[in-house]
UniProtKB/TrEMBL annotation:
Record family assignment: Belongs to the iron-sulfur cluster assembly SufBD family.
Protein name from the UniProt record: Fe-S cluster assembly protein SufD
PANTHER family from the UniProt entry: PROTEIN ABCI7, CHLOROPLASTIC
Domain SUF system FeS cluster assembly SufBD N-terminal: 15-187
Species whose genome carries this gene: Deinococcus sonorensis
Domain SUF system FeS cluster assembly SufBD core stretches: 194-424
Length: 452
């Protein structure tokens, strides 16, 4: 069978030998696997119809001199953001960026696009790239220590799209924070696409050394782009006592298929706070995984989503406890309207020996339409005998008494629904310390219910 992608694409990408070898591993895996389908448990409720042979890579873009040359939605977002430094990617190219503050550069902090990082900081990139989201499928669900070769696993969810991201990524973001350095202002990457009928593959790598801290905001935005695919991987490396806050806001335009795996490798006494916001695209599959490697490690996994029209949003999560005395807390809240579909599949996995694990998982969905559908599959896999783990899921309609109360006070339908939706999502929003992010999310919610 003729393969849709060949090693010629890897040769054209260039780069050092180690990177070319990793890309080839990913491509070999991609070409050997089927597209995930309903027969695979991890994809039971989501089908991706894609003809890879017809796809073409997103075209190259030129650097712009100021933000007025960027799409209007991106301009609006950038003028209201409070990040300390950011870069804007249009397809494979950085089209605009701001500089990292001099005092952070002097402390050894690195923030640049991944393609430049391979050229300028190749030793650090080689040490960590593919260490958390590998280029091949592991033999068990264990992740190797950063800088070593991952072991293998038969998990089919590792599959085809992660392999494609490993093989054909064109760019992304690279953040490196040295030992003991606190980056107070957030750093950000704003990804846009401007060409329909194409694909783009990106990769983000964030490394926080011992006792370092950083917040990284990863945003995606576009106009309507029929038949367009955004595929990516995010690797978060947290050494001992490091603190990382990772925020992903997906607001692609109609017609975009978004598939991304985000995984954190959390060391001893380190803390990972993640927030996944899904609002855009026609089909979105986001996988958020925390690997609690070290004793005393902590992971907070938050998400909120609002699906309307014919949107299909699938969230697949893993809280993997590999060490004793670790804590994880997951709270995912979603809203379904019109004929949309929401899927949540979450696993708490506790390894043998991971005693004193303290893990929680909660998923709640608010349904605004009787035509919307929601599938929720919370799961536990416990291999230790001294743990505290709980999971739960609820799905229900808008409280008609609450809606009537607001309407009886002269509040129009759309605004009343916005108020109820925002109140429903409030316990996630209140955990987000970034005010500009909260205001941006509230604005998207208002647009979806027609109250903007």
């Amino acid at each position: 069978m003729t393969q849709p992608f060949t090693e010629d694409l890897i040769t054209q990408a260039g780069g050092p030998e180690w990177l070319t070898a990793k890309r080839k591993e990913g491509l070999t895996l991609f070409n050997s696997l089927d597209v995930p389908h309903e027969g695979v448990e991890a994809w039971k409720y989501t089908r991706v119809d894609v003809d890879f042979a017809s796809l073409r890579p997103h075209g190259k873009r030129d650097v712009v001199q100021d933000i007025t040359a960027l799409p209007a939605s991106v301009q609006k977002r950038l003028t209201s953001t409070d990040v300390g430094a950011y870069l804007v990617l249009d397809g494979p190219d950085v089209v605009y960026r701001t500089e990292l503050p001099a005092e952070l550069s002097a402390k050894g902090v690195i923030f640049t696009d991944l393609r430049s990082a391979v050229e300028q900081h190749g030793d650090k990139v080689q040490q960590y790239l593919y260490s958390v989201v590998p280029a091949e499928v592991p033999d068990d669900t264990t992740i190797a220590a950063p800088g070593t070769t991952p072991s293998k696993s038969p998990d089919p969810s590792e599959g085809k799209f992660s392999a494609l991201a490993a093989a054909l990524w064109t760019n992304g973001a690279f953040v490196y924070v040295p030992r003991g350095v606190d980056v107070e202002l957030p750093l950000g990457s704003f990804r846009v696409m401007s060409e329909a009928g194409t694909y783009t593959a990106t990769r983000t790598l964030v490394v926080a050394e011992e006792n370092a801290s950083v917040t990284f905001i990863d945003e995606q935005d576009s106009e309507a782009l029929p038949g367009t695919y955004a595929i990516g991987a995010v690797e978060l490396v947290l050494k001992q006592a490091a603190r990382v806050r990772y925020v992903s806001i997906q607001n692609w335009g109609e017609g975009v298929t978004h598939i991304q795996r985000q995984r954190g490798d959390v060391g001893r006494d380190a803390t990972l706070n993640s927030l996944v916001v899904t609002m855009g695209g026609t089909l979105s599959r986001t996988e958020m995984q925390s690997y609690l490697r070290g004793q005393g490690s902590d992971s907070e996994m938050l998400a909120l989503y609002f699906a309307n029209k014919d949107q299909h949003f699938d969230h697949y999560t893993l809280q993997h406890h590999a060490a004793p005395n670790a804590h994880s807390d997951l709270l995912y809240k979603g809203v379904g309207d019109d004929a949309s579909v929401g899927v949540f599949s979450g696993m708490i996995k506790v390894d043998l020996g991971a005693q004193k694990t303290d893990a929680y998982q909660k998923h709640r969905t608010l349904m605004l339409s009787s035509d919307a559908r929601n599938y929720s599959v919370p799961q536990l896999e416990i291999n230790a005998n001294d743990v505290r783990c709980s999971h739960g899921s609820t799905t229900g309609p808008v409280d008609q008494e609450q809606l009537f109360f607001l309407r009886s006070r002269g509040i129009r339908q759309e605004l009343a629904e916005k108020m109820l939706v925002t109140a429903f999502l409030e316990d996630v929003l209140t955990r987000v310390p970034l005010r500009s992010v909260v205001e941006y999310i509230e604005g998207i919610i208002a647009e979806k219910v027609g109250a903007a």
